[in-house]
Write a structure and sequence with these properties.
By secondary structure, this protein is of the alpha/beta class. Helix content is 26%, strand content 24%. It contains 9 helices and 16 strands. The longest helix is centred in the middle third of the chain and has 14 residues.
């Protein structure tokens, strides 16, 4: 049988192309997709032609590709229903709603152990945000915010907002977010931030001094903008930690190490969700991290992040929207229909 898959075919170009669905093996299931979430950060790099052609992969997600040269299928946040099972698969999988780290496509075949059953408490519309929620959980594990600390988050895209929502549940002295887009600053305040700063409205250090009780002990750089990394370093307090969760692709970051970094003993750490930091591996597994991510998808007002639902066949419009109207689009979902034209709800 044939399905349709989304391909990045060149800078600024995506196409929904017919593609044969692999035959169902005895130990696999077939899933019909209902929603998939576009990652504005990673997929934005692909869309703009800014992703490196070769990507080192070190995690357990088999559907993510190493070769990002065009044309390429990509995506990692699909939710759908199991509609067919192989003869060796337990019948309980039939009709399950599942999450998969799978590219944007109408139907796909997967091993059951690679799928995550969507909990009954999480709506099918929220479920595609699991990958972003897992990333936010990982940021807190790596940053280890402590009681009474001041924390700043640069970047209030979906991952930044979810990270803000998790941090707001902690007993911090102050939680500050930095983003140039007014709507995202407003959402950050809804998600529990104490202060939302527009970095274009003045000198960033002066803005922090005006609106916060002191420099951050912990700063997250999640904006995807390499220039923001130097800004984040410039406002972090003495002996502070700076966690970099952004993926800049091949874009370089120009940093001034001769000032605050050197004299103020700053620590800079990378955080990436494909693995768990060695210091946590004895206590944390991906299953445990997924459990936390599902819990927070249920608890946080994530419906506020979903600004657009666009049919899969109009995917080019979705990517153009994210590129051209970042002030309007936060989380864009692709929606899918079955063979009769009905939404798979």
């Amino acid at each position: 049988m044939n399905g349709r898959s989304l391909y990045f075919v060149g800078p600024g170009e995506v196409e929904c192309i017919p593609r044969p669905v692999p035959p169902l093996s005895p130990d696999a299931v077939r899933v019909e997709t209902q929603y998939s979430a576009i990652s504005a950060g990673t997929e934005g790099l692909l869309y703009r032609g800014e992703a490196p052609a070769r990507l080192e992969t070190d995690g357990p997600v088999e559907t993510l590709v190493e070769d990002l040269s065009y044309p390429v299928r990509y995506g990692y946040a699909a939710v759908g229903t199991v509609v067919e099972t192989g003869e060796e698969v337990n019948d309980r999988w039939l009709d399950e709603q599942v999450f998969a780290y799978n590219p944007h496509e109408t139907t796909f075949v997967a091993a059951p152990e690679s799928l995550l059953v969507v909990p009954a408490a999480v709506s099918i519309r929220r479920a595609p945000l699991l990958a972003n929620a897992e990333t936010a959980v990982n940021f807190l594990l790596d940053g280890q915010p402590a009681l009474g600390e001041r924390v700043a988050v640069f970047g209030q895209g979906v991952v930044g907002l979810l990270t803000t929502g998790l941090l707001a549940e902690l007993a911090l002295e102050c939680l500050v977010v930095v983003d140039p887009i007014e709507r995202r600053r407003e959402l950050a305040l809804e998600f529990g931030a104490d202060v939302a700063v527009d970095p274009t409205s003045g000198d960033l250090t002066e803005l922090f001094e005006q609106h916060t009780p002191g420099r951050p002990d912990l700063t997250y750089e999640l904006s995807g903008n390499p220039a923001a990394l130097d800004d984040a370093m410039s406002i972090t307090g003495y002996d502070g930690r700076l966690v970099v969760g952004s993926w800049y692709g091949p874009k370089p970051a120009e940093l001034r190490f001769g000032g605050r970094f050197h004299r103020h003993r700053l620590d800079i750490e990378s955080s990436q969700v494909s693995t768990i930091a060695p210091r946590h591996e004895g206590r944390w597994s991906r299953d445990r991290r997924h459990e936390q991510a599902w819990n927070w998808l249920e608890a946080l007002p994530v419906e506020r992040l979903i600004t657009h639902e666009i049919p899969f066949e109009h995917a080019p419009d979705a990517y153009a929207l994210l590129e051209d109207e970042p002030a309007q689009a936060v989380q864009v979902l692709l929606t899918y229909e079955d063979d009769t034209g009905r939404r798979n709800l």
